[in-house]
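Suppose you are handed a protein chain with no further information: no name, no annotation, nothing but its sequence. What can you learn? This example shows the usual starting point.
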Amino acid sequence: MVARILTESTNVVPGLRDILAPNLCVVFCGINPGLRAATLGHHFAGRGNRFWKTIHLAGFTREEIAPENDELVLAYRCGLTTAVERPTSRADELSREEFERAASGLSAKIARYGPKYVAFLGKPAFSAIFGRKLVSWGKQDALLGGSRTWVLPNPSGLNRSFRLDQLVRAYAELRIALDGVSE
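A reasonable first move is to predict its three-dimensional structure. Written in structure tokens, the prediction is:
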């Protein structure tokens, strides 16, 4: 079992900490904490958020983890962080400058823990951090802190561009790719 290592939180709203450990297969990088997640202190705690169901159905976990048990994700060699620490009700409330300011800290954090992949949940953070206007879904050619990068659709309940089956299919592509990455 992976030792549980939680980074110190510097978030504006205390309680939403990164859930990270060395040498994870993937760190899922949300855009920023939602207000509910920040208030409750647990990742992807919004009522309509489909993250936990999606990673379970895509094969990352044997069971669907409840947000209040978010630390259990470490047992599956997955971690959680956000690109920007400031909580908002909607990700579009963040400025490009906030992403750019957060980039060096995020890169240093990823370099410290060394996951195989960083999976950005949605295109905005990846686009701003890497200065790319056009971003495709899936594996990217950029490294962050020495780790490979991947862009997945955002599982937020506000993102209705993707049905659950489409989210699961996209996330399963990453899980399959991880199976092919040597230890």
